[in-house]
Write a structure and sequence with these properties.
The complex is a heterodimer of chains A (550) and B (651). Chain A is of the alpha+beta class and 550 residues long. Chain A is built from 20 helices and 14 strands. Chain A is globular and about 75 Å long. Chain B has 651 residues and is of the alpha+beta class.
Chain lengths: 550, 651
């Protein structure tokens, strides 16, 4: 298919762009296969706005006489308005945008056409390979092995080709366990806590069904992670009620009788459309422009967004607490093990492992616990808060995870190497990007699409010093300790950087951030100068002494 | 009383066993743990309510709520002891005479001269001079020198030049409690001013020629504008109800060239119950997100804060942008009027956003104009219906502005919290009584100390590291977003959950930056010293061996430049240097140490309750956090542990 077929009017002049907190600008609108480009050539402030079609969540059109107006709502929550003279032009442009922003085929997406303008220092597709991760692990313990059982994605379609499992369990047993777990997602290692050797594993629900099926190999596998005489915790991210209901559909949970060494805790984390509706309501409340805003707090409450944040953080803290404080191993799962499970396992690692609070470590965490672990990004991030279509698979699972990370970052502003901008950048790229990293729903699909060969990795772009400098937290001081966030309502806040980003003037906050950077930069410069001078003085003094001695 | 348990609000498992002491001024709880013997001090004047709960098997629980939002739960083993403590506290927390208050016994070991200096720190005449007054339009009036016209006004007032004594007296007779229009703020640049008064006694139809002339005089004092705004900060309904009592508001038909405006800030009773509702939400044990947000919304607290801000913004805009003078009043003109005038001044004039300027502002709009501190904050036992968090709301408005304009204020959040604390503490004389007249009669300045001097001495603790007097954000009028912007007003957990450290960010950006700035300053000094030493050394070397071969020189320079580079790339070495900084050069170190002891001494004697809840400590704690190797972060981990465990496990 040629994009040109979809673009009946590639260019319109005298278009007026409206954005909150900016003066309206007149300019030229161009449509290309992947971008909407608005450029104004006013002498005093020439500017260009490039918008990826895939970033467009919904589009509305209105007419007053022959003047058409298009309102574009983006997945990054921005809203812009374009006034286009000429009814036909406006209709053409609107229908082109609609078609181009809802392309069915992945291979038509921009990452397959994007050619980077920067020099590639490091291929991001090869930055975080499982073998390297495993090397780190095997330097501290030899109880685990890399299994290539899923090499052709033949055992579990949503798992990566290699996974880490207990050494004592052979591939044959794994195959049997896979039969006993939903979507074949058998328990694999998620995190090893060096401090006390405790581990966190993740899986999907066991297929016990109504008649209480059991699987010896499954029991053996998860018991293999326990020290002699020790107990472990299973954190089920569903309420007991939901878990019980799952049995009717063939799913279920681990029975105490068959897993006597494990204590099961149910933590209710919502999924799918409940989360999606929560996001829609929250963004609606944030965008409410009516002057009677005194119900703001109840609208915020009604969205339940912060309730979800609190639930997810609480479950993650609980998992971390079991590992670090109780000295117990933990298995986390919900139903599929691709959503709430990953929220819990990845946040627990942020709390426990200082490495995950560095830029590189966090990227590695996203790769391991989200991309390789098979979070279906393409399904979940297909639409954002402004979508009208009621599809079943969208859910802001990853955004909730990023929001939780931001909450911890806010409570420990000096313990993270990255800043808020880094998290916002990941949110944007998960929903619309020129890079292939977040395309596809799992490694299997990514390998079929040949993404590493045909597209550029987000990490290739981010991990260059020019970009990194934007994402570094000037306050960072390595903190090797476990950080325990507060989950009390007073401690959790709306993430303004994402949800109010386009509805509030940020000038004064930006200035404050800049001032902060300057204070620290100046301090570092002075330190360098003082040290240089000290060195110089010391040398001169020794010279002096030597001469005197001569 | 021994074997008393102090309960932790968040987890009932964590209780400290210790001994309770009652002194003439404080309740003191000392933990039994021998290494720390952690102390909790509470001033009697901070106690807002004491509740004796039903005796349980473990003892008799006593709940003490404080005006600075601390909540203390004690369990006393013997019912009889508990009753005695209860009775004593009830008496001690409600003094009937000013002489019983802490400030009359508090002695920070300053001599008489220092005390006098302290009281002179804030001088209102100087402040009006700073505004450019007296001038062609405004003059000082001594008409109230013996409080003969209005006993709740100060002796020195600024009025329009054209307002004769006859007009002033006439106008005062037509205003509630004779609080006639007087100058609060004057804008040099365009002659626009903010004046304040109480409501007119207009009833349904009464008028007063002198009052009309008074408003006319205010308008004429601003030749650039042909009208003035009259802002009634009350809801219209309240103002109308007042007419039945012979009071009310200005009729636009009777006053020439005024534009009349209602703002709609609720009265002290609504505010008192709003705070009460919000505090109930803060006190909930492990509330859900919904409980909290619903409770906060229902309390209406943030709505009230926004109403006050909106009024301030309206006035600031009239003065700065339209160049129009404003007369502000409510009923008596000492609560809402004080809030609104001071918020507007703060928005208009960068000076009030400095530490000194803020003290001046409070002294001007609150203390001198007769805000009834004693009644509003219940310093002496009195009518509970008079109590209302009027000043607390103003302080919160300032905090909300600080959140929106992080570089615009010279002081930080701690400064505001400490001022709030001392409004209730009665440790300093500034906020005693209901008016200047009462304070003079009590000879406050001779018998007590000034809070401003105390804060000023410790000003290093109160600085906002992001403030720079030459920063763009610092200049001119602040223009906050108007509606719709409710989301800009946030719950202030730093104030209302002040004593629950577990809820707050564990690392403070402010403290971190302050530590960095302090270090920067030391580095600057050191750089200078090193530079001098280097220059001297070079000079002497030059004198010593001018004949040195050029080649040697060059090699030396090369060597230097490489060493420079290598240093810049090894941050490890800096952290070693870092440790040596606090007690740097021995000569200065001594001075610093003694200074430190002095301040600590002061803190112990003057601010026991503040230091006990570690506002100072946290600064130190975070300082040690800076060195990566130091175990300074441990407290955060430990404190996080127990309290949070309960929260996470609550299924």
């Amino acid at each position: 298919m040629e994009f040109a077929e979809l673009i009946k009017t590639p260019r319109a002049d005298n278009v007026v762009l409206h954005r909150p907190f900016y003066l309206a600008v007149e300019g030229t609108l161009c449509l290309t296969g992947h971008h909407l480009i608005f450029s104004s050539r006013r002498q005093d402030n020439a500017e260009e706005l490039w918008l990826l079609h895939s970033n467009i969540d919904s589009i509305e059109k209105r007419f007053v006489g022959s003047l058409g107006t298009i309102i574009i709502k983006c997945k990054d929550l921005r809203i812009i308005q374009l006034d286009i003279p000429g009814m036909e032009e406006c209709l053409n442009i609107a229908s082109s945008i609609e078609a181009l922003s809802t392309l069915d085929s992945v291979t038509l997406m921009y990452p397959f056409f994007y050619r980077p303008m920067f020099e590639i220092v490091e291929d991001g597709w090869r930055s975080f390979l499982p073998d390297q991760e495993f090397e780190l692990l095997s330097s501290v313990t030899d109880e685990w092995r890399l299994s290539c059982i899923n090499k052709e994605f033949s055992v579990c379609p949503s798992y990566p080709p290699v996974v880490v499992v207990p050494k004592s369990i052979d591939d044959e047993a794994l195959r049997k366990v896979a039969m006993f777990r939903y979507g074949s997602r058998f328990p694999v290692l998620s995190y090893y806590h060096k401090k006390n050797g405790m581990v966190m594993m993740r899986s999907s629900q066991p297929l016990t069904g109504t008649n209480g099926r059991r699987c010896k190999e499954d029991e053996k596998l998860i018991n293999a992670t326990l020290r002699p005489g020790k107990r472990g915790y299973i954190i089920d991210t569903r309420s007991l009620n939901v878990a019980q209901q799952a049995r009717a559909k063939g799913g279920g949970f681990e029975q105490e009788a068959h897993y006597p060494q494990w204590r099961r805790i149910h933590k209710c984390i919502e999924r799918f459309n409940i989360l999606q509706e929560s996001l829609i309501k929250l963004v609606e409340a944030c965008n409410d422009q009516s002057h009677n805003m005194d119900r703001w707090l109840s609208k915020l409450e009604a969205s339940n967004w912060l309730t979800h944040i609190k639930e997810i953080l609480t479950a993650a803290c609980l998992a971390a607490q079991c590992i670090d404080r109780e000295g117990a191993s933990v298995l986390v799962h919900g139903t599929e093990g691709t959503d709430s499970t990953l929220q819990v396992t990845s946040l627990a690692q942020i709390i426990l492992d200082p490495r995950c609070r560095t830029i590189r470590g966090f990227e590695s965490l996203v790769v391991r616990e989200w991309l390789q672990a098979g979070h279906p990004f393409q399904q979940r991030c297909a639409q954002s808060a402004y979508s009208n279509s009621k599809q079943k698979w969208e859910a802001p699972v990853f955004l909730l995870f990023l929001d939780c990370v931001w909450q911890i970052l806010r409570q420990f502003p000096c313990s993270f190497e990255f800043n808020e901008q880094f998290l916002i950048m990941l949110f944007e790229h998960a929903y619309a990007s020129q890079f292939g990293t977040f395309l596809g729903n799992n490694e299997n699909e990514r390998s079929k699409l040949k993404l590493p060969q045909k597209t550029m990795s987000l990490w290739s772009w981010v991990n260059r010093s020019e970009e990194l400098s934007k994402f570094q937290n000037p306050l960072f001081e390595a903190n090797s300790l476990v950080i325990w966030p507060s989950v009390a309502p007073q401690s959790l806040q709306l993430w303004e950087g994402v949800f109010l980003r386009w509805n509030r003037p940020s000038k004064f906050l930006d200035e404050a951030h800049e001032e902060m950077i300057n204070i620290i930069k100046y301090n570092k410069e002075l330190q360098a100068k003082v040290n240089a001078l000290r060195r110089q003085l010391a040398e001169m003094e020794t010279d002096d002494r030597m001469q005197e001695n001569l | 009383v021994e074997n008393v348990r102090l309960l932790d609000r968040l987890s009932s498992r964590k209780a400290a066993l210790g001994t309770l002491y009652l002194t003439a001024t404080h309740v003191i709880f000392v933990e039994n743990v021998s290494e720390t013997r952690k102390e909790t001090w509470v001033l009697h004047s901070q106690i807002s309510s004491i509740e004796k709960q039903a005796t349980t098997a473990t003892g008799c629980p006593l709940l003490i709520r404080c005006k600075n939002f601390q909540v203390i739960q004690l369990v006393i083993p013997q019912e009889r002891d508990c009753h005695d403590v209860y009775i004593s506290l009830i008496r001690l927390a409600r003094p009937v005479k000013y002489e019983e208050l802490y400030c009359f016994s508090f002695n920070p070991k300053l001599d008489k001269e220092e005390r006098e200096q302290g009281w002179k720190l804030v001088d209102l005449n100087e402040e009006y001079n700073r505004m450019g007054i007296p001038n062609n339009y405004w003059q000082i009036s001594d008409i109230n020198r013996d409080y003969g016209v209005c006993d709740s006004y100060p002796t020195e007032l600024y009025v329009p030049k054209s307002a004769t004594a006859h007009i002033i007296v006439g106008s005062s007779k037509f205003r509630s409690r004779r609080r006639f229009p007087a100058l609060s703020y004057y804008c040099k640049d365009n002659n626009a001013s903010i004046c304040r008064s109480s409501q007119p006694l207009s009833g349904f139809s009464a008028r007063c020629l002198e009052d009309e002339q008074m408003l006319q005089a205010i308008r004429k004092a601003n030749p650039g504008s042909d009208f003035i705004y009259v802002v009634d900060t009350r809801p219209k309904l309240n103002a109308m109800a007042n007419r039945a009592a012979g009071k009310g508001y200005e009729n636009e038909d009777n006053y020439s060239n005024i534009k009349f405006q209602f703002i709609g800030i609720e009265n002290i009773h609504v505010m008192r119950s709003s705070l009460q509702k919000m505090l109930e939400v803060c006190e909930l044990k492990s509330p859900s997100m919904s409980d909290f947000l619903w409770g906060l919304e229902n309390s209406g607290w943030l709505k009230h804060i926004k109403a006050i801000m909106d009024a301030g913004i309206f006035i600031a805009k009239a003065v700065a942008e339209e160049g129009v003078s404003v007369l502000v009043h409510c009923s008596d003109g000492w609560d809402r009027t004080a809030q609104v005038c001071s918020v507007a001044s703060l928005l208009l004039d960068p000076y009030y956003r400095t530490m000194k300027g803020f003290m001046v502002l409070v002294e001007k709009d609150w203390v001198s104009f007769g805000h009834k501190f004693n009644h509003r904050y219940g310093n002496l036992d009195g009518d509970p219906k008079e109590i209302s968090p009027v000043m607390d709301q103003f302080i919160e408005c300032v905090w909300q502005l600080m959140e929106q304009f992080p570089c615009a204020f010279e002081f930080n959040e701690r400064f505001l919290i400490h001022i709030q604390h001392h409004i209730y503490s009665c440790q300093f004389g500034n906020f005693l009584c209901n008016s200047q007249k009462e304070r003079r009669e009590l000879k406050i300045q001779e018998r007590t100390y000034s809070l401003w001097a105390h804060l000023w001495k410790n000003r290093a603790n109160y600085l906002n590291p992001l403030y720079r007097s030459d920063h763009g954000q610092t200049q001119g009028t602040l223009r906050p977003q108007m509606a719709p912007c409710n989301f800009l007003y946030k719950f202030w957990s730093g104030m209302y959950n002040r004593f629950e450290k577990g809820l707050h960010p564990r690392q403070s950006v402010t403290d971190y930056l302050m530590a960095v700035k302090e270090e920067t300053q030391q580095l600057e000094e050191e750089l200078e010293v090193l530079g001098e030493r280097l220059a001297n050394l070079q000079k002497s070397q030059l004198n010593d061996d001018k004949v040195k071969s050029k080649q040697q020189d060059r090699s030396k320079q090369l060597g230097l430049s490489t060493s420079d580079n290598s240093l810049a790339n090894t941050p490890q070495e800096y952290s070693n240097d870092l440790k040596s900084f606090p007690s740097r050069s021995p000569s200065q170190g001594d001075e610093e140490d003694s200074a430190l002891i002095l301040t600590q001494d002061n803190l112990k004697s003057s601010d026991p309750d503040l230091s006990a809840n570690s506002d100072q400590e946290s600064g130190v704690e975070d300082l040690s956090c800076r060195s990566p190797s130091g175990g300074g972060c441990l407290p955060s981990e430990d404190s996080g542990k127990d309290s949070d465990e309960a929260v996470y496990l609550a299924v």
